[in-house]
Amino acid sequence: MGLTGFGVFFLFFGMMLFFDKALLAIGNILFVSGLSFVIGLERTFRFFFQRHKLKATSFFLGGVLVVLLGWPIVGVVLEIYGFFLLFRGFFPVAVGFIRRVPVLGSLLSLPGISALVDKIGESNTMV
């Protein structure tokens, strides 16, 4: 859990410091290795390399590779797109949980946010 947490911290900090490629590279390596340690190598490979998730995996890992090669902004855009494709099935569960949290649930009920959250909450298929 520590590796994954530090990975997210370094990714966030790297973006806050105007896409510092060294911090983003460290964050990517820590996040992917932390994920592997948390859920295991076999389950990590099964998650990333399912037939219907190959497009998402290629964007996410391609973004990691582009960041490591020194193009941080392009790499982060590819990673974010791949991340949303990979974890699209988890978003309805997360939205349902957040709606039950007292303060956050009322924020998600605001007029402008509610339509967006409803769209995210009901999308559970990969395109």
TrEMBL record:
Pfam families, per database record: Got1
Bilayer disposition of the protein: Multi-pass membrane protein
Entry GO terms, CC: cytosol; endoplasmic reticulum; Golgi membrane
InterPro entries found in the cross-reference section: Got1, Vesicle_transpt_Got1/SFT2
Transmembrane regions listed in the UniProt entry: 6-35, 56-74
Keyword Membrane belongs to the record: yes
Keywords of this entry: Golgi apparatus, Membrane, Transmembrane, Transmembrane helix
RNA-binding is among the record's keywords: no
Compartments where located: Golgi apparatus membrane
Main location: Golgi
One BP annotation, GO: endoplasmic reticulum to Golgi vesicle-mediated transport
Family: Belongs to the GOT1 family.
Primary role: May be involved in fusion of ER-derived transport vesicles with the Golgi complex.
Protein's recorded name: Golgi transport 1Bb isoform X3
Organism: Pundamilia nyererei
